[in-house]
Design a protein that fits this description.
Shape of chain B: globular
CATH topology of the largest domain in chain A: 2-enoyl-CoA Hydratase, Chain A, domain 1
Oligomer: heterodimer
CATH class of the largest domain in chain B: Alpha Beta
Largest sheet of chain B: 8 strands, mixed
Number of helices of chain A: 9
Number of strands of chain A: 10
Shape of chain A: globular
Number of domains of chain A: 2
Radius of gyration of chain A: 20 Å
CATH superfamily of the largest domain in chain A: 2-enoyl-CoA Hydratase, Chain A, domain 1
Helix content of chain A: 25-40%
CATH class of the largest domain in chain A: Alpha Beta
CATH superfamily of the largest domain in chain B: 2-enoyl-CoA Hydratase, Chain A, domain 1
Structural class of chain A: alpha/beta
Radius of gyration of chain B: 20 Å
Number of helices of chain B: 14
Largest interface: A-B, 57 and 53 residues
Strand content of chain B: 15-25%
Largest sheet of chain A: 7 strands, mixed
Strand content of chain A: 15-25%
CATH topology of the largest domain in chain B: 2-enoyl-CoA Hydratase, Chain A, domain 1
Order of helices and strands of chain A: HEEHHEEHEEHEHEEHHEH
Strand order of the largest sheet of chain A: 3-5-6-7-8-9-10
Distance between the termini of chain B: 56 Å
Helix content of chain B: 40-55%
Number of domains of chain B: 2
CATH architecture of the largest domain in chain B: Alpha-Beta Complex
Distance between the termini of chain A: 66 Å
Order of helices and strands of chain B: HHHHEEEHHEHHEHEEHHHEHHE
């Protein structure tokens, strides 16, 4: 009896991993408790159901680039509150909290590195920072990454994860859609490839600007990708949305993305694709 | 002051009749002054009766309401006042024709241009048909096609922006709404002809920006332009769309705000009380401003037009930098 109670109290903790976050993570899809070291080795894809967990920017770099190859470019540009935006909380307070949470000035990390030996310039959005929203800093860092790639003759890879343009910078955020496009055209004029990788979720002003003007658009399995959010669409049309609506596979079947690529294959896929597009000699 | 809508309609009708007579006189060379002069006097009298006393400053929400006032001139109203020979061209050659975003070549106060117009509709029936100016992907793809023509034939582009945003529908998503907007932004940025944009009512989000990345972006005094509508922002912040007046303040979305932020080059004055109270005077101001910017830009080389536009948008944003 006593032994039975002892086990009942212990087992749920071990299964959900709720009290030992450093060791275990619960898969948000199949609810399976996953050993973190195993999860990391599997590029944060659930080994049981194949669900692609959301990554922060550093994890993304780790998953995509060759170990030790990353050299950071971003970091010097910091957000300001040009509009003195105040709602239930001031924008400055929101920024401070997001900065403390992520250790980044804003929702973007850029740098250079190699993918199985192929040099790239990489920009990664950080959904953990204010939902990956695009304000002036995200726009500027993406523009600079594109210009860096153009100057140094490397392909550009942008990994998106964003709820869209950042409300607290109003029209200034909106203008980042144009700014990023301007910089990407500089890269295009150099004949260098730009590949976007759309991850869960990618919506709003990011979908309607730099994410979808890439030479090749890849998407992660199951990622929500669209312009308007599902809730807004539902309010407009007043009917329920079909299964799989706005998911990566839905977009593939509608001709909107080039391929849905499992995260575990992305490195090899990108290295091969970029090698071909830049006409690199095959590796021995 | 309150306005009587019936006599306001009468005023606008009279105004239109005067305008028609003037156009006929101009086109045929007939002297119609005998008919025009008394009508014009009546128009002036009615207008004086309708013009509210000037008010110190409007709140941001009051301006949003003026931007949506019933009877506010739509894009086609400006075209009727300012253009001759508007030849509407239909369809995106891929899927369909979008009545929310229309366009084609026209003479803008005598200058051959390519028009891109977000058209809201004037009555309930046309408003529904045109989805209140909220375009589907085929609208933006038609815009791209018309911009291709403009570039090919050296026609400056005049784009009149008036939308709460791109249409958030199921089919719009299936056909790549985000893709279509992004492509339209890119096409406009790459044009080698002059591009002048005017926000004439509502400038909502990416759906507006899609045709608003020109060399000169102008806005009417009581129009708004923002990353999100005040209602949209209010439902995100307070989960309550009726808090839109508060959101309008926070978003700083009025013409004077945007001038201060460097988003627009010029604010086009409206008649006292709003463009709907005197559409002809509003059109006159829009026509004058656009033509002045067009003439200025038409002196520039195609390469300078493109690089100047790129530099304009590359600059925009607010941030600090540590070294």
């Amino acid at each position: 009896m006593a032994l039975d109670r002892f086990f009942r109290r212990r087992r749920p903790q071990q299964q959900t991993g709720a009290d030992v976050p450093d060791l275990w993570t619960q898969c948000p899809s199949c609810k399976e408790g996953l050993y973190n070291r195993e999860l990391q080795a599997n590029t944060f894809v659930c080994p049981k159901c194949g669900h692609h967990l959301r990554l922060d920017a550093s994890q993304r770099v780790q998953v995509l680039l060759d170990e030790g190859s990353f050299v950071q470019l971003s970091g010097a540009v910091h957000p300001t509150d040009a509009l003195a935006f105040q709602d239930t909380e001031s924008y400055l307070d929101r920024l401070k909290r997001a900065q403390q949470k992520t250790g980044r000035p804003d929702a973007i990390l850029t740098g250079t590195g190699t993918v199985l030996g192929v040099p790239v310039t990489l920009a990664v959005m950080d959904f953990a920072f204010s939902g990956g929203s695009m304000g002036s800093v995200v726009g500027e860092e993406i523009a600079r990454a594109a210009e860096h790639a153009a100057r140094h003759g490397t392909p550009l890879v942008i990994v998106t994860a964003s709820g869209g343009a950042r409300m607290q910078e109003s029209a200034l955020s909106l203008m980042q859609m144009a700014k990023t496009t301007v910089a990407l055209e500089t890269l295009a004029e150099q004949g260098l490839p730009y590949v976007s990788v759309l991850t869960d979720p990618t919506t709003g002003g990011v979908t309607a600007s730099f994410a979808t003007i890439a030479d090749v658009i890849l998407a992660e399995p199951g990622a929500l990708i669209g312009f308007a959010g599902p809730r807004v669409i539902q309010q407009t049309i007043r009917q329920s949305l079909p299964d799989g609506f706005q998911r990566a596979e839905f977009l593939l079947s509608h001709g909107m993305v080039d391929a849905v690529v499992d995260r575990r294959e992305q490195r090899a896929y990108l290295a091969s694709l970029l090698g071909l597009l830049t006409r690199r000699e095959a590796r021995a | 002051m309150t306005t009587n809508p019936t006599s306001l309609d009468t005023l606008n009708e009279l105004e239109a009749r005067v305008h028609d007579l003037e156009v006929t006189a101009r086109n045929t060379g007939q002297n119609l002054d005998a008919a025009i002069t008394p009508l014009r006097a009546e128009v002036d009298r009615l207008r004086a009766a309708h013009t509210p006393a000037p008010k110190a400053a409007l709140t941001r929400w009051e301006r949003v309401q003026l931007a949506r006032a019933p009877g506010r001139p739509t894009a086609l109203d400006y075209v009727e006042h300012l253009c001759t020979e508007f030849t509407e061209l239909h369809g995106d050659r891929r899927y369909g024709d979008d009545p929310a975003l229309i366009g084609g070549p026209a003479r803008w106060q005598g200058v051959p241009v390519m028009l891109l117009l977000q058209q809201k509709g004037r009555d309930t029936k046309t408003k529904i048909k045109r989805r209140f100016g909220s375009a589907n992907p085929e609208g933006y793809r038609k815009a791209v096609r018309l911009m291709d023509l403009a570039d090919k034939f050296g026609l400056p582009v005049v784009a009149l922006v008036d939308t709460q945003g791109a249409y958030p529908g199921l089919e719009a998503e299936e056909r790549g709404q985000g893709w279509a907007i992004a492509e339209s932004i890119r096409r406009m940025l790459n044009l080698r002809v002059p591009v002048v944009n005017v926000v004439i009512g509502e400038g909502g989000s990416g759906g507006a920006l899609a045709i608003a990345v020109g060399n000169r972006v102008l806005i009417q005094e009581n129009a708004w332009y923002s990353v999100i509508s005040p209602e949209g922002a209010a439902s995100i912040i307070w989960k309550d769309a009726s808090k839109a007046p508060l959101a309008a303040e926070a978003l700083r979305l009025t013409a004077p705000d945007l001038l201060e932020l460097g988003i627009v080059e010029e604010v086009i004055p409206e008649p006292t009380g709003g463009a709907h109270l005197n559409p002809q005077q509003a059109a006159h101001a829009v026509g004058e401003a656009v033509t002045r910017h067009l003439r200025d830009l038409m002196a520039q080389s195609p390469a300078d037009l493109k690089s100047g536009r790129a530099a304009r948008f590359r600059r925009l944003g607010a941030y600090t930098e540590t070294t």
